[in-house]
Amino acid sequence: MSDRYIPKIGDEGFEWRPEFYDIWFKRGKVIAETDKQIVFLKTNGEIGTVSKKCSFRPIPTKADVEREQLNKIINDNVSWVDVVNEIQKAGFTIPKKVKRSELNAFLDKWYGEWLDDNDMAADELCELLGDLVEDEAND
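Structure (tokenized):
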């Protein structure tokens, strides 16, 4: 079985490039596939196809792009001082941490009358956000 990414029906978008080509082309939602082709919906409503012989990848998220950029900075610089300087110049996204009490206040304000248990909803939301939730001594 191959580890090669092939877009599936329902994928909202993908990028593709022919073999030995450096430019990735963006395509729309996958609506069908055959043994040899990926069928997608163009932005103008027309239907297009791409050969499965091409290289494919999901449309990169901002985090994917930043990860590639960070790897390039680390690999292209000899000293850690240069690495740090390049990282500072690059302007990476640094996620803002939120406090659990802020999540509880938000849930109470907007969904308080519909939620049976704000604390349980806050727990699930905190789990979903993971490291973005800041620990509080009062909580």
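The chain has a mean pLDDT of 82. Residues 61-94 form one domain.
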